[in-house]
């Protein structure tokens, strides 16, 4: 029972005891007044009152037992609270390598439960003692401490000196940053502690990473990392529903994304699309924002990411009322019908369940039978909406489930694997290690030919260092490359899960490799553009690069470099799986 429910039970017992006790005492002796009877009723809680000459009125008998029950309930609750506090403190003192989660809200609770489910130990710090998840976390084995995680003493009590991970997952970005700064600025922090800070706005998070506020090597102290629930969800959405694959699993050359708002999840989705939405025909993804605040939201996005349109085409369509969305979206989709293979994804994951279903059905009606789109909506696992979609057919006789799809569960984006990016980083590290080995080989070759300038250039590459020494921004670049591996494999007409993938990849013909090299160059360029780089004479310190040009304008050496990156696609996946 959590604090709120326990307090409610005690309050009800307290009032009932006073009512029955007062009535009972007055029934036993009508000569005593109400104040005297009430005073005696209050004494029932001390177990020193209630014994009277028989006969004992029924109301008083009930009051005596209620008083006893109230006192015992309060005593047991106090002992339980003290025991939980003692167990938490003792567990932290005896443990090592545990994780600390700050915030017991929806995200913090999901992270903590995921850690526990994986066999880990976790201490949770929550400032609100009435948070409903506290009792649940304690029941599952978490060590819960009440206090403000921005204060060093509570972090010390949570075992900061022995912790492996500190997750700042409160609902306040400023509080999360403050907690992180307190922890990383303390000599109590364990060497190598990884501090994961949740910043709700993806663009803000990226800005902090690019400027080194969130990020570090972790070799000399805590490593400050960012994580974003919405970006994690965007990754899982694009993994489960690749935009370039239609409802039948066939690749489409024209790719369209339509959505009503750039709320945190919508913004995360379009940024992830801009990073990895580079497909076999090398055409940019068309993103259409249809909403009442479309123009303002688009301008806000472009103010944070000025080079966004270098990576994807994005257009705002302002509507007067929300109920105009389906009409406008249908018109946008119809505008792409001239492209025979164009396929659209309409993202309604930001809408309430019933509203999303209504918009999806209206969109189907107004699209005049077109099946060149799908609608993504969100629904709880136990929602009746899932049964409706799964068991119904539309006016065209086709199952609704053919084109209405449900987003992956939200809690998966807060699992410890998603927050710590362990699986993703295995692949990202394999990508980096492959590049690092290639760059080292190029240095050796340049040294053998006594090309000092080439050696200096290769050694001067900012990312030419082991994975553990990369900045958070450099690791993020490799994560984007890892996210895109499956896109390249599908672009070649292959299945990323094919057991014979390595042999098939090695036998790709020259035109396919050329196409994939162009795709890889677009992907690399997108990382640079979104990271604030500009075209010009190369200067790493000022984020200027001369290769931010079309693939055909690259020199042969750079084209060959992209080709080698393509050839190592499956090897990177194999290297990551081998480490697992």
Describe this structure in words.
The structure is a single chain. This protein has 580 residues and is of the alpha/beta class. 51% of the residues lie in helices and 11% in strands. The strands form three sheets. A six-stranded parallel sheet has the order 3-2-1-4-5-6, with helices on both faces. It has a six-stranded parallel sheet with strand order 9-8-7-10-11-12. Strands 13-14 form a two-stranded parallel sheet. Helix 16 (422-448) packs antiparallel against helix 17, helix 16 (422-448) packs across helix 18 and helix 16 (422-448) packs across helix 22 (569-579).
Keywords:
disordered C terminus, 14 strands, alpha/beta, about 575 residues, single chain, six-stranded parallel β-sheet
Question: Concise description?
Answer:
The protein is 51% helix and 11% strand. The protein is of the alpha/beta class and 580 residues long. Helix 1 runs antiparallel to helix 3.
């Amino acid at each position: 029972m959590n604090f709120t429910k326990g307090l409610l039970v005690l309050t009800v017992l307290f009032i009932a005891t006073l009512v029955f006790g007062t009535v009972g005492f007055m029934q036993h002796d009508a000569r005593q007044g109400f104040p005297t009877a009430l005073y005696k009723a209050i004494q029932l809680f001390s177990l020193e009152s209630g014994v009277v000459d028989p006969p004992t009125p029924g109301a008083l008998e009930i009051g005596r037992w209620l008083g006893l029950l109230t006192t015992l309930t309060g005593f047991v609750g106090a002992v339980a609270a003290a025991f939980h506090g003692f167990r938490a403190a003792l567990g932290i003192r005896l443990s090592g390598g545990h994780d600390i989660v700050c915030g017991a809200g929806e995200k913090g609770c999901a992270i903590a439960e995921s850690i526990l489910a994986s066999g880990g130990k976790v201490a949770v710090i929550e400032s609100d003692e009435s948070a409903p998840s506290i009792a649940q976390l304690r029941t599952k084995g978490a060590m819960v401490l009440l206090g403000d995680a921005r204060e060093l003493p509570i972090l010390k009590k949570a075992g900061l000196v022995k912790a492996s991970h500190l997750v700042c997952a409160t609902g306040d970005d400023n509080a999360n940053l403050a907690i992180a700064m307190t922890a990383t600025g303390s000599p109590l922090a364990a060497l190598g502690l990884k501090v994961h800070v949740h910043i709700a706005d993806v663009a803000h998070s990226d800005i902090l990473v690019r400027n080194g506020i969130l990020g570090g090597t972790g070799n000399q102290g805590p490593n400050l990392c960012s994580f974003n629930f919405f970006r994690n969800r965007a990754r899982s959405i694009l993994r489960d529903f690749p935009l370039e694959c239609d409802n039948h699993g066939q690749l489409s050359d024209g790719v369209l994304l339509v959505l009503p708002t750039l709320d945190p999840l919508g913004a995360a989705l379009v940024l992830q699309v801009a990073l990895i939405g580079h497909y076999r025909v090398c055409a940019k993804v068309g993103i259409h924002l249809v909403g009442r605040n479309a123009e303002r939201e688009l301008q806000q996005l472009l103010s944070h990411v000025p080079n966004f349109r270098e990576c994807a085409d994005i257009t705002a369509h302002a509507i007067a009322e929300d109920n105009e969305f389906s009409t406008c979206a249908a018109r946008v989709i119809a505008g792409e019908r001239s492209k025979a293979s164009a396929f659209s994804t309409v993202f309604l994951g930001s809408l309430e369940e019933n509203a999303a279903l209504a918009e999806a059905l209206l969109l189907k009606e107004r699209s005049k039978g077109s099946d060149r789109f799908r609608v993504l909506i969100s629904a709880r696992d136990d929602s009746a909406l899932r049964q409706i979609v799964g068991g119904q057919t539309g006016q065209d006789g086709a199952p609704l489930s053919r084109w209405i799809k449900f987003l992956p569960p939200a809690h998966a984006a807060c699992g410890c694997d998603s927050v710590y990016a362990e699986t993703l980083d295995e692949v990202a590290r394999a990508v980096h290690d492959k590049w690092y080995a290639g760059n080292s080989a190029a240095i050796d070759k340049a040294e053998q030919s006594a090309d000092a300038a080439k050696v200096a250039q290769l050694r001067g590459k900012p990312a030419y260092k082991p994975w553990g020494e990369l900045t958070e921004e450099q690791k993020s670049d490799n994560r984007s490359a890892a996210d895109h591996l499956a896109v390249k494999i599908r672009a070649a007409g292959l299945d990323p899960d094919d057991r014979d993938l390595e042999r098939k990849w090695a036998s790709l013909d020259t035109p396919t490799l050329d196409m994939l090299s162009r795709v890889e160059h677009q992907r690399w360029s997108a990382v640079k553009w979104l990271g604030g780089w500009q075209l010009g004479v190369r200067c790493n310190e000022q984020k200027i690069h001369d290769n931010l040009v079309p693939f055909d304008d690259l020199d042969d050496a750079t084209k060959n470099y992209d080709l080698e990156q393509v050839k190592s696609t499956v090897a990177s996946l194999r290297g990551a799986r081998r480490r697992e």
